[in-house]
Amino acid sequence: EAEVAQSPRYKITEKSQAVAFWCDPISGHATLYWYRQILGQGPELLVQFQDESVVDDSQLPKDRFSAERLKGVDSTLKIQPAELGDSAMYLCASSFGIQGLMDEQFFGPGTRLTVL
Amino acid sequence: GQSLEQPSEVTAVEGAIVQINCTYQTSGFYGLSWYQQHDGGAPTFLSYNALDGLEETGRFSSFLSRSDSYGYLLLQELQMKDSASYFCAVNRDDKIIFGKGTRLHILP
Q: Distance (Å, rounded) from C-alpha B32 to C-alpha B48?
């Protein structure tokens, strides 16, 4: 069964360092999402791609966060510099993109980031 | 303000039925989805309602009333494996917004 792949699964870094997360969506899925989930909260959308284009990055802290999906397939989310408040689970999801934002989203296992 | 409201915790007995409610702000609403997330796991899709009424998928059903800005997830014949967090999510003003989640505790 096709799955969304993410790496690394865990990342520990010191504040002010740079970190990067990678996501490979399910083949054929045009829409890719990056979420941040703090323990006990729901996922918060950071950025949404349709193919290689950013559709929504209104919640992305652009002074330190960046995301790209250069060939419209896999994607990278970067944080530089990391801050203590960035400690969270970073989830990637993908969908076919036929029904727009209410398509079934398939989530990857996430990257748990701890900033010391 | 908060776009979605759902109870933080619900407790039910194995074999019973439980309903998890979700209320939302109306403007720009297009549909309501439900996701399940086990501890340490990723969210998995359960259902989607764009129109009023009840959608049934096995033991799980989801209901939407757009006039009341309200929906719920109904879980029947509860099993211990249903212990998880359940999130409602809306498409509002072209943004997808998740609720804070409802933690479902199941007692044997």
A: 6
From CA A17, how far away is CA B45, in angstroms rounded?
A: 34
79-108 of A, contacting B, C-beta below 8 A? 91, 93, 100-102, 104-108
pLDDT tens digits for A16-66? 999 999 999 999 999 999 999 999 899 999 999 999 999 889 999 999 999
Can you tell me the distance from the alpha carbon of B46 to that of B59, in angstroms, rounded to the nearest whole number? 11
* Whether A42 contacts B101, CB under 8 Å: yes
CB of B44 within 8 Å of any CB in chain A?
Answer: yes
> What are A89's two structure tokens?
């689970």
Q: In what order do the strands lie in the sheet with B70-75?
A: B4-5, B18-24, B70-75, B60-65, B53-57
